[in-house]
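Notes to self, Peptidase A1 domain-containing protein:
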Amino acid sequence: MKSLVLVLAVAIMAEAIKVPIMRGKSVREKMREQGIELPYVDPGLKFQHTNDCIGTPPQTFPVLYDTGSANLWVDSVYCNSQSCNVHSKFNPQQSSTFQNSGSTTQIVYGAGGVDLMLGYDTVNVGGISVQNQVVGLSTSAQLSPTPFAGVVGLAYPSDAAGGQPTLMDTMMQQGLLQYDIVAFYLAPPGQSGSEMCFGEVDNSRYQGQITWTPVTTGYWWQINIQGFAVNNQESGWCSQGCPSMVDTGTLQVTMPQQYFSYLMQNIGAQQNSGSYYVDCSQVNNLPTLTFTIGGTAFPLSPSAYIQNNNGYCMVGITPTYLNDQNGNPLWILGDVFLTQYYSVFDRANNRVGFAPAA
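result:
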């Protein structure tokens, strides 16, 4: 779990909607500071985090903009579960534009689930009003308390529980975007300047050219990794292609367990309470990991995939047992990768683009 807290100060240029993002500490990091080590949870079965305004007059909540899921939901006054009671809740009776659809649904995550009643309301994104958006209101939640009060899913509508149109689809249908894209620039942890941009690519946020690769399934933002090398030595793991989800809602890079074990042995990582750590004095001697995507090499240096948290050098790579819809082991390119590379999610052309972050 991670925190991407949206700041309401925005700049609107042409049809672009630019939203500054602040990156906070993950729940695991906050608990570690209190001397509590959380048990391992498969990040591929995860839950995902930024600030949205819903209703008229607007009610404001920190939410997660997540390319790994498709539903839009917030905690509501109808939910009295522990995870709902740690922050503000949406009250539909205080919104003149809310309409109850009479439908319900449930979303199941690896860390738990949430029951929702569905309705329609106005959602404000970076100063732009999206009318009649389907919004899920939590009625109960089986989740650990998190810093965010809801999720804005940006995956394909086929991934949405209850058949909800995604926020992206509604914005597209209402002609609010110049181009049907959303792009992310994630500054390094601890630094400001992160940004999400609807409708336009921000050329100042990346260097060189964008490499495009097609989406292989219209469910997640799933692409194909063509190769994976350790210190320029091709592993052969992706010689037939490795399906990978590109997911802003996952903190790390994840890989199938059978490859993960070999890599941890290769870099000398030791396990502790589900996470893997290396000797901080040896980080500069660790190998560079290189992904080949769309015919272009995307290297991750040791400083990119090793996270130094208060003197603990944790590996920002974790195993997952997830398969894609065809039963193939699934990789996930999360924030460890997306911090290094500007990412563009193009619904019009069903493709994802990457370029070195500025």
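- The mean pLDDT is 85.
- The chain is about 10% helix and 45% strand.
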